[in-house]
Structure formats: C-alpha cells, structure tokens
C-alpha cells in the first residue's frame, strides 16, 4: 500500500530482559543463553488501530512488519446471544476467525492461521532472496499457501501426507507455492524435521514457528479485536492449542493493552484445551512440570491419528522455554482442559444451532473447555469472557468450489538432507 511505513520496534529476551535490534529475521537472542522466546517491543505503546489500512493491517501498530499484503481479513468479535444464553453467561464474546460474511468474517482459508501468514510474510523484506520454509499440520499450510499464492511469494510447505485433505483452495495455486510431505503414518513433528533438513541450505529460511515474533503478534490480533469491540481486557480467555502459540500471543497482547492504561488491568486468565487422547501439555501442566513429560514418537503418532482436531498434535510445543505456555499459564492463573472426540461432535452440532455457523474441530475443543469451566464454577456468569474460535465456515466456503493441492514431493523421514535440498531446488 502506498505510504505505508514499517512499524518501529525492537526485540527483548523474555528471560533476561536484554533488548536488541531485529536484524531482519531474528528468531532468538543472538547472545545465546537459556532457551527463551524473544518479544517485540513497539515504539508506539498506545493501541492505535489504523482505519486507513485494510484487513488485519489495521493493527499494524503492534505487528513487526515492513509492508502490507493484499487479501487479509481481521478477526471479528461479537457478543454472543445463543451460546451465552445456553451456558448462562452475561458477557460472553466470541472472536471468530474464518468464513462467515454475515458477521464480516472473510478469511478464505477459514482459519486464524491467516493472521500468522499475513504478519510473517509482511515481516519479510520484499527483496528477500531466500525461499521461505513453513512446517504445518494442516491449517497453517493452507493459510501460507493461499497468501503466498495471492502475493507471489515463493514458499516450500512441509506437511504430513495424512493432513493433505486440509489443503483445499478456491482455485489452483500460483507456481511459487511448493508442497512437500512425509508419508502416511508420520505426524507434524516429522514434517518439522523435514523442513529443518531443507533449511540447512543457505538459500532456504525457516519461518520459525512460535519463535517468530510476527507469527505471535499476528495471532495476538484476536485479543486486539476483542479490546476494540469491548474496550477491555477479558477476564478469561479460552482457546484450543496444538503448540500453545496463540495463547502465548494472547497473553503478550493483554500485557501490552494493560501497559496502554485504557483497557484495565491484565487479570486475564488463560484457559487452553487439548483433544484427548493427545494430552502432552495437559499431562505436563497437571503434573506441575515445566519440562514436557516423555512421549514416545510411536505413541504420539498413534494419538495424533485418533483425534479429530489433528492440528492439535504437536509433540514439541513451545511449552517449557521462558515466555512459553507454562509461563503464560502460571502468570495468568490459567489452566488446561480436555475435550474428547465426542465433545467435538456435540459442539459441532450445538454451536451451529446456537450461533448459526459451523466451527472447525479445534474450535469445538475451545467451546468444550468453556462449557466445562462454567459447569465447574471456574468462570462467573458476569465475567467478561473471550472465546477464541480459531476457525470455521468451511462448508460455506467450499460450497463455492475448490481444488486440492497435491504434494510435489513425498520424502521418507530418513531421507538425507542433501537429497531433500537438491530435489526441492529442482522444483523451482
């Protein structure tokens, strides 16, 4: 967009407090030290939505970006009537990221992963020569593929073959998008390992996952949408998690809003939920352990095959490091809930009846957590509650027609890095 000026910010090591400048794609403190996230510190400490910018970029003041891209949509927050009445809540607000034009939600890939893609890709310099590598269990792949295709940005996306049914699009993608996969029976962690091999070459660059401040601050726009709609920081926040990055991002923006001074104190309790039997973070949290409990790869893959919300199956989430999910739950006084596949099916139907549109399975995990919190007295009927529904509207979106993106290459997990790099280079 003509006239856009890059957002001014620096970075800080969450553990040590050391501030330093972003060298363009800094993912960790260059001075090293104990594992820690880095966080963006914005020159503009006041939350100031930019009405002249489209879509998610109205929140550019707190996004570490150099430019804006076309086609984005911001999350939509509205006060619930149907679900709120059903649960007996007076101040339930739903922040929805997906496809429901009736309420103004027009994310073409139906997932809040678009918030990540539009932020991460806008952090990239337009003159960047390296090819971006993105690792995903499904929704992130669809979002990055769509945004890169629409904006002509080369990308290699690594996914499990079992997740390729999620890679549907309205039309055929631009040739700048390449998809590589690990075989049936492999999971998200195997896809991460594949991308890591590719990124050993200097002409490829890892997107960075939770370590990328642009990913987190893109996801954190859900809380900014809530604050803009209500004028407050929520008392309680609910979200399903695979890595927990979205919940970390929500907490970080709640802290920024509190520092602004116009949105109340940050008393937001962060409640997250996993899809049983994939319960790694739930088990670790309930054990009071900062370190993740042991989960054998074979058992992790078995659990990932069982759950309906397969995007919630990260075996190596950013849970333990400084600023990660463990710290977020501790600082906020939050907790972790579980939802099984039966819970998901129940809320798929019930939510549609109550709110008028369907959710993705992961969002139903979040609704389950909220319902359990109400039943257990964890939240009060008068509290200001944010339910982060991270995706939905696929049936409506796909009714307009769709095509699937087939993998360009499938690699066995044991394939040497050199072979992966050579074959992927030949795709371009």
Task: Report what the structure shows.
This protein is an alpha/beta fold. It has a domain at 76-110 and 214-397: Rossmann fold. It contains 14 helices and 18 strands. The strands form 5 sheets. A 6-stranded mixed sheet has the order 4-5-16-13-14-15, sandwiched between helices. Helix 7 (245-260) links the parallel strand 13 and strand 14 (269-275). Helix 2 crosses helix 3 (139-151) and helix 6 crosses helix 7. The longest helix has 16 residues, at 245-260. It is globular and about 60 Å long. The two termini are 28 Å apart.
Sum this structure up briefly:
This protein is an alpha/beta fold.
Topology (SSEs and partners):
Elements lengths: L8 E5 L5 E2 L17 E5 L33 E4 L2 H6 L4 E5 L2 E2 L4 E2 L6 H11 L7 E5 L3 H13 L3 E6 L7 E2 L7 E6 L5 H11 L5 E3 L6 H7 L1 H10 L5 E5 L4 H16 L8 E7 L4 H7 L10 H10 L18 H8 L2 E5 L1 H15 L5 H15 L9 E5 L4 H5 L4 E2 L4 E2 L6 H9 L3
Parallel strand pairs: 5-16, 8-9, 8-12, 9-11, 11-18, 13-14, 13-16, 14-15
Antiparallel strand pairs: 1-2, 1-3, 4-5, 6-7, 10-17
């Amino acid at each position: 967009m003509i006239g856009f000026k890059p957002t001014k910010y620096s970075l800080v090591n969450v553990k040590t407090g050391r501030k330093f400048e972003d060298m363009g794609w800094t993912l960790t403190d260059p001075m090293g030290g104990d594992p820690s996230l880095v966080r963006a510190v914005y020159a503009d400490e006041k939350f100031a939505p930019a009405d002249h910018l489209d879509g998610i970029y109205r929140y550019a003041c707190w996004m570490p970006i150099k430019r804006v891209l076309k086609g984005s949509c911001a999350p939509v927050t509205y006060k619930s009537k149907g679900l709120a009445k059903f649960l007996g809540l007076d101040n339930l607000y739903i922040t929805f990221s997906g496809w429901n034009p009736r309420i103004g939600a027009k994310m073409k890939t139906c997932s809040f992963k678009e918030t990540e893609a539009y932020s991460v890709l806008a952090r990239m310099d337009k003159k960047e020569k390296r090819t971006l590598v993105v690792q995903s269990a499904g929704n992130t792949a669809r979002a990055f593929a769509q945004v890169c295709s629409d904006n002509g940005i080369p990308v290699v996306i690594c996914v499990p073959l079992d997740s390729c049914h999620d890679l549907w699009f309205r039309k055929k993608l631009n040739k700048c998008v390449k998809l590589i996969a690990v075989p049936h029976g492999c999971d998200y962690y195997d896809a991460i390992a594949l991308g890591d091999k590719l990124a050993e070459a200097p002409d490829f660059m890892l997107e960075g996952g939770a370590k990328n401040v642009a990913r987190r601050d893109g996801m954190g726009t859900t809380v900014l949408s809530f604050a803009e709609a209500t004028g407050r920081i929520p008392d309680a926040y609910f979200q399903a998690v695979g890595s927990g990055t979205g919940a970390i991002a929500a907490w970080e923006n709640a802290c920024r809003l509190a520092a602004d001074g116009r949105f109340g104190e940050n008393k937001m309790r962060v409640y997250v939920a996993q899809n049983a039997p994939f319960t790694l973070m739930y088990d670790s949290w309930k054990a009071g352990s900062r370190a993740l409990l042991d989960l054998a790869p074979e058992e992790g893959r078995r659990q990932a095959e069982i759950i309906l919300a397969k995007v919630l199956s990260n075996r190596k989430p950013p849970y333990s490091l400084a600023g990660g999910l463990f710290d977020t739950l501790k600082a906020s006084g939050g907790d972790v809930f579980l939802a099984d596949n039966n819970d998901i099916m129940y809320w798929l139907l019930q939510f549609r009846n109550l709110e008028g549109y369907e959710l993705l399975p992961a969002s139903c995990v979040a609704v389950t957590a909220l319902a359990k919190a109400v039943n257990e007295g964890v939240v009060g009927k008068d509290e200001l509650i944010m339910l982060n529904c991270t995706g939905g509207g696929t049936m409506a979106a796909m009714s307009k027609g769709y095509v699937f993106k087939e993998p360009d290459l499938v690699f066995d997990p044991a394939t040497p890095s050199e072979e992966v790099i050579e074959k992927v280079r030949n795709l371009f």
